[in-house]
Amino acid sequence: AVHQSAILDGSKVFHCHEEPGNITYGLLKLKRPALFLFKPGQYAFLRAPEVDQFWHPFSIASDPNSNDLEFYIEIYGQGTWTRGLWDVLVKKGPDESFTMEIVGQYGVGLVNKGEYSPVVAVGSGTGIV
Fold first, then answer.
1. CA 50 – CA 87 distance, rounded (Å)
2. Given strand 23-31, what is the order of strands in its sheet?
3. What radius of gyration do the chain's Cα atoms show?
């Protein structure tokens, strides 16, 4: 597999909702770079330099034909990367630039196209499933 990288500036959407039991989830939606190709079930590493300099793996939750990359992220407590990401994005207005670096795709796809019909995939947890 060819691994691709991109630096994404100013293209972010971050929605958040709270589940019973004080569990908070966020949807990070980024504009997909034109040459960033992936299959269902693959993941990518994300880095937000405004949060820290480390890479963090997340499953790609969007359709491979979409113009966006979507990542569902559980927001943990203070001092975690996910809380740091949330705090940075909340402070920024919708028109403020934000840099997110992405490297991927990793892993094998769930199925080969046309091999099965229909397909049901079940995952749990956050991050790599």
1. 10
2. 13-19, 23-31, 68-75
3. 15
Q: Which of 19, 39, 43 is CA-nearest to residue 129?
A: 43
In whole angstroms, give the CA distance from residue 95 to residue 116: 43
Tokens of 119: 């397909």
In one-letter notation, the amino acid at residue 30 is L
Burial 12-25 (b: 16+ CB within 10 A, else e): bebeeeeeeeeebe
| SS3 assignment, position 104 | strand
- To the question of pTM greater than 0.85 for the whole model, the response is no
Give the pLDDT confidence of 58-112 residue by residue, as tens digits: 888 888 889 888 888 888 888 888 888 888 887 876 677 778 888 888 887 666 6
Query: For the chain, how long is the longest CA-to-CA vector?
Result: 46
Residue 55 carries which DSSP code? -
